[in-house]
């Protein structure tokens, strides 16, 4: 299924005759190597995920404890030669939002940040969370 989806994306973006040549991207095998660099922007979990009052105890909380996973869509945008503001980019953001909404219902929460990254947390211990993520 993965390679079929990538082939459809590749064919719709560049056509069947052209070849994409981007370092770290192999659309035929479905492999994208993500460069590990320092973040260009630091975002606090409290600002991204949740803050407010616990209605049962009236205690103010900010953010969650535990592991926060980040799904960065920028390598996908780069691989298909688009941005988050293009039509296909907006479709990818909507697709990701729909999958996370469905998959995390009752087991976690997520937040879309700048239509480029999704931060999500699972109501599991870190070991189970890594497997689910």
Outline the structure in words.
There is one protein chain. The model has no long low-confidence stretch (mean pLDDT 74). The longest helix is centred in the C-terminal third of the chain and has 17 residues, at 87-103. The protein folds into 2 domains: 1-31, no CATH class; 46-133, no CATH class. Strand 6 (108-113) and strand 7 (117-122) form a beta hairpin. Helix content is 35%, strand content 20%. With 133 residues, the chain is α+β, with helices and mostly antiparallel strands. The relative contact order is 0.14. The strands form 3 sheets. A 3-stranded antiparallel β-sheet has the order 5-7-6. Strands 1-2 form a two-stranded antiparallel sheet. The chain has a two-stranded antiparallel ribbon with strand order 3-4.
Structure summary:
With 133 residues, the protein is an alpha+beta fold. The chain has 5 helices and 7 strands; from the N terminus they run H-E-E-H-E-E-E-H-H-E-E-H. It folds into 2 domains: 1-31, no CATH class; 46-133, no CATH class.
């Amino acid at each position: 299924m993965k390679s079929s989806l990538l082939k459809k994306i590749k064919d719709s973006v560049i056509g069947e005759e052209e070849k994409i040549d981007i370092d770290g991207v192999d659309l035929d095998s479905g492999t994208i190597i993500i460069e590990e660099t320092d973040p260009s922007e630091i975002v606090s979990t409290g600002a991204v995920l949740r803050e407010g009052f616990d209605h049962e105890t009236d205690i103010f909380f900010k953010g969650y404890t535990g592991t926060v996973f980040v799904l960065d869509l920028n390598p996908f945008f780069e691989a298909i030669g688009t941005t988050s503001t293009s039509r296909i980019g907006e479709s990818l953001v909507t697709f990701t939002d729909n999958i996370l909404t469905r998959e995390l219902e009752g087991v976690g929460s997520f937040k879309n940040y700048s239509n480029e990254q999704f931060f999500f947390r699972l109501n599991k211990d870190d070991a189970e969370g890594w497997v689910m993520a």
